[in-house]
Amino acid sequence: MIGRLLARFRRPAAPSANAVAGGPSVRWMGLDDPANPFVVEGYDCLAFVRSMVSTTLDPAIAESFHLQRHADGANLAGQLPGDAVAADCTLAYRSDGAPPDGPLFKAEAMEDKWDIYLHGDRIYFCRSWTGTVVHVAEFTVAGDTLAIHRTWSVGGADPGHATREIDYLVKSHVLGRRVPHPLPDTLAAQPHLVGLHSFSLYGRQCCFGTFADTLHDVVLKAR
């Protein structure tokens, strides 16, 4: 049964960029909901974010997005977010050695909200429309583990939430896993607002928003 539930949360091979906004709604799922495959309660955003279309009336933003598609992030080496807030953390992921410099994830359409690059010993998390650096994570590689110990996030960011966002972006965008995304404590717990916030931050890549802790590695219920 869990396998059937997970099927609807798996990343599609080619997500549609022509979905019609205003169709599917965001659904609250309790921990005991049999349709919830995760170990946390939260909001099923999957159908909602896949139905949304991103557009802009600002030619400058459209041009910026187009230009970012050809970027390899080399110009970001050594940069930090504006008014950067530094934080120490402990995040670890399995890795077959140190990844090569260059893009780790590139937005393919405006419904994808992030570009992620690696250069040297740092990972750069940038907004796909503008190229703005939002997070930088410094990492080390030992054996089959890539560990992030220090991060810098754009000024005003809550360090705890920034750490959860970085962890989510690595798991979902870089590693291609379907995992719950973190919701900020300041967000109203209203399904439609959660859906709009989730799409604005993570686009069509997200599936399930939660106010619960997302840093643990086991996110799926036992079969």
- Report, as a whole number of angstroms, the end-to-end distance: 8 Å
Give the biggest beta sheet. 6 strands, antiparallel
Q: What is the element string, with H for helices and E for strands?
A: HEEHHEEEEEEHEHE
Tell the overall outline: globular
Number of distinct helices: 5
The tally of strands reads 10
Low-confidence parts, pLDDT < 50 over ≥5 residues? Answer: 1-21
Write the layout of secondary structure elements.
Layout: H1 2-7, E1 27-29, E2 42-44, H2 46-51, H3 59-68, E3 85-94, E4 102-105, E5 114-119, E6 122-127, E7 133-142, E8 145-153, H4 159-174, E9 181-182, H5 191-202, E10 208-210
Parallel strand pairs: 9-10
Antiparallel strand pairs: 1-2, 2-10, 3-8, 4-5, 5-6, 6-7, 7-8
Quick tags:
alpha+beta; six-stranded antiparallel sheet; four-stranded mixed sheet; 22% helix; 25% strand; disordered N terminus
Describe what you observe in this structure.
It is a single chain. Helix content is 22%, strand content 25%. The protein has one domain. The termini are close together. The N terminus is likely disordered. The longest helix has 16 residues. The chain is globular. It is an alpha+beta fold. The strands form 2 sheets. It has a 6-stranded antiparallel β-sheet, with helices on one face. A 4-stranded mixed β-sheet has the order 1-2-10-9. It has 5 helices and 10 strands, in the order H-E-E-H-H-E-E-E-E-E-E-H-E-H-E.
Give a quick summary of the entry.
The protein is α+β, with helices and mostly antiparallel strands and about 220 residues long.
